[in-house]
Protein: N5-carboxyaminoimidazole ribonucleotide synthase
Amino acid sequence: MDKNFNYSNLKLGIIGGGQLGRIMSHKAKKMGFHVTILDPTFNCPAAQVSDKHILGGFYDKEKLEQLVQETDVTTFELEHVDTSILKELFDHGHIIHPSPYIIELIQNKYEQKKLLDKKGVPVPAYKDVKKEEDLAAFGFPVIQKAKMGGYDGKGVQMLKSEADVKNALQTESFIEELVDIDKELAVIVARNIEGQIKCYPVVEMLFDERVNICDIVMAPAKISKETADKSREISIEAIKALDGVGIFAVELFLTKKGEILVNEIAPRPHNSGHYTVEACATSQFEQIIRAVTNLPLGSTKLISPAVMINLLGEEGYEGEPFIEGIHDALEIPELSFHFYGKTFTKPYRKMGHVTILDDDIDQALQKAMQAKDILKIKGSKKI
Structure:
């Protein structure tokens, strides 16, 4: 795409119709683009705000080809897709970013780790598991990860002792040393077609330990300037190693000894970047559209400290969602409420999020915890 391309007619294709696709579509529509999404679920979150919905699965080669053929640029809101047809289309000149080759690499967490390690990006010690004895290579406790298909804590487990080996994941996997974590950090990095790179502030992620889902994001992270600079530097090196175009979330471990290690990379907008909608000059959702359509990247300036909390489906409920406490929550100053339009809730499903701005990050966190106590997503049926 050259600079003389007629952007008033641009057709954007998004593979995936969840909450990330929904907010991407919002931003693309703001810019006047035509948006087609591909998703197997009728009336999915992104379909509610897009121009066209191709109803099809992420491994349906025919529907994937239809999306690419009907649009000028194709991008992703998830990485679990069939890359074989996308690689063929990419090789024939269709604009697909990040490239299907990068998506394929990232789908395999072991291959992703190997590439980063080879390129000199710091990662935890790891080892391929070819036989059961390999699980004990680092001693115990140790982290076992499925090579393929894991997300939101799925496909990851701790083996605390040799007795746990009988419960090991029965799939292709690798092990990682158990890192002595001080904080879990993340950096959103954008890279456009011309190689321009922009980095967002370093954020801290807090997890719901019951299901290992990122629960709270604090922007900026409460870390030293030196640690923040080093985190950004390592994150940029990781994306350069991939040679990727789009938005990438680099998840990092800050160890108790002060080391910074890359955990993994998501090749799309990410939960840790939701705060950018209200708190940054350019949101991650607009930034990915700029990146993949060969437009200049926007400013990543943090306008205000912010805390984001996920709104997860309440335990003990499923069915049609019911939002409890919205009136009281919206009394909290500088609170923005996002509901994703999912028609069915179940325990721990991501149903929405809230972002709170405050000049003082501790005050923002206090208000966020207050909102978390007030807002509950319940369902029509008790389980």
User: Anything to note?
Assistant: The two ends are 52 Å apart (CA to CA). Residues 181-382 form a domain with the D-amino Acid Aminotransferase; Chain A, domain 1 fold (CATH 3.30.470.20). The first helix runs from residue 19 to 30. The chain has a mean pLDDT of 95.
